[in-house]
Structures are given as C-alpha cells and as structure tokens.
Amino acid sequence: MLGEATILFQIAGIGIIVAMIHTILKQMGKEDIAHFATVVGFIIVMIIVIDEIANLFQQIKSVFLFQG
Amino acid sequence: MEIFQIVSLGVVASLLFILLKDQKSSLAFILILITGIFIFLSVIQQIAEVFSLISNLGKKASINGIYIETILKIIGIAYIADFGAHITRDAGLSSVAAKIELAGKIFILVLAVPILTAVIETILGFLPV
C-alpha cells in the first residue's frame, strides 16, 4: 500500500508543478512554451497511468477470466 | 488491518483531487483512476482465494467445470464494466457510462446462453412429452 501512496503523491506533485510552470511562463509572456510544458507533464502522468491500467487488466485476466 | 490503509488512501486521494481540481482537472481525473486501480489491486488476492475455494467446492461436488468457469467470467465482466462505467461517470460522461454498462450486460447475456440452454433441456427432459 505504501508504494501506491507514493505514486499518488507523485502525480499530485506533477500536477501542481505543471500548473505553477504554466502560470509562471504565462506571466513571462511565453504562452506557447507554457502549453508545451503542460502537455509534457500530462504525458508523463499518462505513462504512469497506462502501466497501472495494464497491471490491473493483467491481474483481472489471471483471476477472473482464465482460472475458472 | 488492510481496511484502514484502503480508507486512508481513499481520503488522501480525494483531498489531492480537490487540490488539483481547479488548476488541472485532467490530472485530477487521472488521480481518481489511479486510486480505483490501487484499491482493486490491493483486494484482488483475496478475490483469487475466494474463487479458488469456489472452484474447489465445485470440483468436489462434481459440478461440471463449465458452469463454475462461466459464473466467474460473468463476475469478472460485471466488475470491469462497473469499474469503467463509474470512472467515466466520474469524468462527467454519463452517456458513455450507460453504453459501457449496456455492452457489459450484452456480454454477460452471451456468456449465459449455454447455461440457459442446458437448464431448459434438463427441464424438458423431466416433462412427460
């Protein structure tokens, strides 16, 4: 359970950092770089999520669908 | 006790969700998705034990393996459809959630067909035709 909590906090941290970077870059006037940074942060989080979803589906397949 | 960890994980995740909701609602939704996955992953071992118990009892009672297997598949499909439907409903797309539930029901029906035919045939066998 501890490992999962850390991943949760990592995602929240990435979200907050990306939001801060976005606002800072917007004030500096570099609007497009801000959007670019947001997209990069989003991609990082998506990679983490996709690993977890793959893990979940693998577990479900092994428990429900094949071991009758 | 595992239940305390799960409850605390849920509370922490909901707090983080509220924190992230205003700035980055997309990441907040991903947070909910991850929490649902983690809570299920922490429970799946117990589910596996219960299912192995059920299948052992089925073997002992010499019930045909197909029935037990179909029941477990139906439970699995029901759970996944329910998981997906609630996640999409959290995201605010209740129409997509309804479609997912419809698909889940249809798959379960398709799986239940052989059992229904078996039951009907046995009943017809009893009737003095």
Automatic annotation (TrEMBL), chain A:
<protein>
    <submittedName>
        <fullName>Stage III sporulation protein AC</fullName>
    </submittedName>
</protein>
<keyword id="KW-1133">Transmembrane helix</keyword>
<keyword id="KW-0812">Transmembrane</keyword>
<dbReference type="InterPro" id="IPR025664">
    <property type="entry name" value="Spore_III_AC/AD"/>
</dbReference>
<keyword id="KW-0472">Membrane</keyword>
<feature type="transmembrane region" description="Helical">
    <location>
        <begin position="32"/>
        <end position="50"/>
    </location>
</feature>
<feature type="transmembrane region" description="Helical">
    <location>
        <begin position="6"/>
        <end position="25"/>
    </location>
</feature>
<dbReference type="InterPro" id="IPR009570">
    <property type="entry name" value="Spore_III_AC"/>
</dbReference>
<dbReference type="Pfam" id="PF06686">
    <property type="entry name" value="SpoIIIAC"/>
</dbReference>
UniProtKB/TrEMBL annotation, chain B:
<feature type="transmembrane region" description="Helical">
    <location>
        <begin position="28"/>
        <end position="54"/>
    </location>
</feature>
<dbReference type="InterPro" id="IPR025664">
    <property type="entry name" value="Spore_III_AC/AD"/>
</dbReference>
<keyword id="KW-0472">Membrane</keyword>
<dbReference type="InterPro" id="IPR014211">
    <property type="entry name" value="Spore_III_AD"/>
</dbReference>
<feature type="transmembrane region" description="Helical">
    <location>
        <begin position="66"/>
        <end position="85"/>
    </location>
</feature>
<dbReference type="Pfam" id="PF06686">
    <property type="entry name" value="SpoIIIAC"/>
</dbReference>
<protein>
    <submittedName>
        <fullName>Stage III sporulation protein AD</fullName>
    </submittedName>
</protein>
<keyword id="KW-0812">Transmembrane</keyword>
<keyword id="KW-1133">Transmembrane helix</keyword>
<feature type="transmembrane region" description="Helical">
    <location>
        <begin position="106"/>
        <end position="127"/>
    </location>
</feature>
<feature type="transmembrane region" description="Helical">
    <location>
        <begin position="6"/>
        <end position="21"/>
    </location>
</feature>
